Amino acid sequence: MKVEETVIDNIRSRPRFKIFTELSREEYAVYLQKFLKERNGEFEGNVNKEVSLISVRTPNDNYWKPCLSLRTETDPEENKTVIRGIFGPTASVWTFFMFLNFIFGIMWMVAITIWYVEKQIKSNDFPWAFTFSIIMLVCLALTFSAARIGKWKGKKQMQQLREFAEESIRKFENYQVKG
Q: CA-CA distances (angstroms) from residue 38 to 31, 57, 69, 165?
């Protein structure tokens, strides 16, 4: 088993990793379903041979509850299975935060452009433009802060998910060697 992790993974909002294994995609899916059941309800998820979504069971769910998305592919060069893992919030939360960043960013660009053009032509038709651009920057900062706080709150669960992914492969490969 070979696990790759880069420094950039610690910076990203959605850290990634790759695991190379001798298992086939089908074997990994069957084993992952079995391994998930063995964890006594600590984790929950949906597993199939292409994509699996795993999360930690918690008494209360916050908006940034992390999940682990595992995508399996066959690497034709090395004739191995590549398991790509991505940690992050659910897809709907991720999309919502990206939508907010996009909207606030576009609105900031429009407002600052209007203000700049107004100053260049020495007009006073849009006195609200500069104030609005500052408000959009504040909204962007709040969105960024909310995402960072959510990531910080889910750090322990992200570590549990990482250990789950590594342990699931390690246990299977040890079983294969012994059996």
A: 10, 14, 19, 14
Residue 64 CA to its chain's centroid (Å): 10
- For 53, phi then psi, to 5°, come to -125, 115
- The answer for residues whose C-beta is within 8 angstroms of residue 140's C-beta and 6 or more apart is 101, 104, 105, 108
One domain for residues 84 and 100: no
Helix axes 25-38, 155-178, angle to 10 degrees: 120
- Asked whether residue 108 falls in the same domain as residue 85, the answer is no
Hey, what amino acid is at 101?
N
Predicted confidence band at 11 (pLDDT cuts at 50, 70, 90)?
very low
Q: Supply the range of the domain harboring residue 122.
A: 94-151
Q: Are residues 63 and 126 in the same domain?
A: no
pLDDT digits (tens, 9 = 90+) for 111-150: 999 999 999 999 989 999 999 999 999 999 999 999 888 8
Give the domain CATH number at 27.
3.30.530
